Amino acid sequence: MDAVHVWWGWEDGAVSEDTLGDRLPVGPPSTLLPADHPDLAVIALLGEAGTSLVATDLDPAALRRAAAQHPASSLAWALLARAELADGATGGDAVAAYAFARVGYHRGLDALRRAGWRGQGPVPVTHLPNRGFLAALLALGEAAARIGEDGEAARIEEFLQQSDPTAASVLAAGIPLGEIAAG
Fold first, then answer.
1. What is the tens place of the pLDDT at every residue in 4-38?
2. Which residues, listed in sequence order, are joined to residue 175 by a DSSP beta bridge?
3. CB atoms < 10 A from the CB of 31, how many?
4. Are residues 52 and 128 in the same domain?
5. pTM of the full structure
6. CB-based contacts of 131: which residues, under 8 Å, 6+ apart?
7. What CA–CA distances, in Å, run from 180 to 80, 121, 157, 174?
8. What per-residue string of b and e applies to 5-21 under the rule 16 or more CB within 10 Å gives b?
9. Residue 24 and residue 149: Cα distance in Å, rounded?
10. For the chain, how many structural domains are there in total?
């Protein structure tokens, strides 16, 4: 065995084509938004002592103030979209939800790019600052489906799965503010 095979662990069978990803990262690295991301200011503004942010539990005027004070926050726009989607049976506006979610999505894409994201790779929901972007993406998919943009809804669902396959289930009932175990 030559030195390269010994260094990589091939000599003892510890590394094979099947286990290479366990020792070496395969694919693009995860993107983590910074700790000073505006979503954290929105959490501080709206979160109080709760364990999650649920759009229907929040004052609509407070949501609008949060978006106005922190327009770069994906989370603020995602919560506005979720509030409109949740009000669907009582007059919620799917078009407004789509617009709010699209703003949150684009604000999130801008932030991801600044954090080094190159258009692909994991965006883990376990990282608190990433949750606003993922929530905006989830709301955008739902709003797109409600207004008949089925192709877009399918692309968004695929994007969400590629970003973090657990994001939809984690964010379905609200935005958790605490730690989430890696899935």
1. 444 445 455 555 555 555 556 678 999 999 999 99
2. 53
3. 21
4. yes
5. 0.84
6. 39, 75, 125, 171, 175, 176
7. 23, 20, 21, 13
8. eeeeeeeeeebeeeeee
9. 39
10. 2
